[in-house]
Design brief:
With 370 residues, the chain is α/β, with parallel strands linked by helices. Helix content is 38%, strand content 14%. The chain contains twelve helices and 13 strands. Strands 1-9-8-5-4-2-3 form a seven-stranded mixed sheet, sandwiched between helices. The protein has a three-stranded antiparallel sheet with strand order 7-6-11, with no helix packed on it. The chain has a three-stranded antiparallel sheet with strand order 10-12-13, with no helix packed on it. Helix 2 packs parallel to helix 7 and helix 3 packs parallel to helix 4. 49% of the residues are buried. It binds pyridoxal-5'-phosphate (PLP).
Length: 370
Amino acid sequence: MHVHLARPDITVREWQAVKEVLFSQSLSMGPQTRAFEEAAARYVGTKYAVSVNSGTSGLHLLVRSLEIKKGDEVITTPFSFIASSNCILFENATPVFADIDPTTLNIDPDRIEEKITRRTKAILPVHVFGHPVNMDAIKSLADYYHLMIIEDACEAIGAEFHSQKAGTLGDGAVFAFYPNKQITTGEGGMIVTDNSEISKLCISMRNQGRGEDEGWLKHERIGFNYRMDEMSAALGLIQLERLEEILTKRETVASMYRERLQDLPEVTLPPVQPNVKTSWFVFVIRLDEKLDRDKIMSFLRSKGIECRPYFSPIHLQPAYRNLFHYRPGSFPVTEKISQSTLALPFYNNLTAEEIDYVVETLRIGIKKSP
Ligand SMILES: *Cc1c(COP(=O)(O)O)cnc(C)c1O
């Protein structure tokens, strides 16, 4: 049996929608993009939604629209996908890491205050694996120190913190639609905000800095080509219409794993917290420190089961070590947890048989481990 780590959930509806765009001959900056943006704003409950060609582009535009620049600092997590910190470097500002909470694996609000300096401009929390950050704590710090909040919701569309949707919890937020995310556009992302100035700047900067009338050769500022195309938007629109169905399927897969793994003392399951709704992005368990995680991973792979050590700490990536001279030990919680995480195959249409196979193989792997 071969079990994939992630798979998109594409139906005949998506196929039909993309085909219609191809026949319409309107392939960029057209009705699908506008419809997808309107639907996204409506779903999240923000005034504005601006589509872009990746989550990374969206984060970059948010940082830039907040005028974060050289000399400024942004506090963020070292336990994330590298884009959440790279977007700060793109504008020559400095990412300042705060270690994580060992339960939620999100940035630990109690470790943020000690990192705030005169240069701090913003906090960039990431809802890691779709589990919302404790935004009450982040917001009160941001209010007290007059900091902006950039919400990396790339893994968390549909998640809620105290019944408030991810994407509405900061000054601006970004969702990502790479094929392993909850919903996909192939490549793509969406910025959401209630701030008209941020929205205006993002719309201009994704489109070569054109002004509001989008006059073809009138460029008011330096911008980029971060536009989403019409095929992607058509795909995203259907996926967004199917979001509740998709999230329910993912919830079901997560509970099937939970049921089958709960009696294993060597396994820590993903957190469940009151007042929080997780939008399942991946299913990441943690293995007892005494086990050899990498050996268990090789064993699973030898049995046709794809798996990953999510995440490898950002500060220990060669690119960051070269720039900032981080060493092992800089963020001990992140580093320790990174050595024990294991992302199991996780996607909408994973069957009970496949889950049984993964769990049985994992049990054998754990028994074989020293
Ligand atoms: C997926 C993801 C992004 C953006 O990814 P793209 O591949 O650029 O769409 C950003 N931050 C996090 C935490 C992510 O998981």
